[in-house]
Specification:
Blueprint: H1 7-17, H2 23-40
Helix pairs in contact: 1-2
Length: 41
């Protein structure tokens, strides 16, 4: 499976990885990633 960086999912991953992002941002980013993983993988 090819990996594409950037876009909504890539941004969500960066948000989760960053130590500076707020908890609210992390929770919505986590949701985005979980949805993507469930739908696409």
């Amino acid at each position: 499976m090819a990996v594409h960086h950037g876009g909504k999912v890539g941004k969500a991953a960066k948000t989760l990885a960053s130590k500076k992002s707020s908890n609210k941002a992390k929770s919505s980013a986590g949701k985005t990633l979980a949805n993507h993983k469930a739908a696409k993988h």
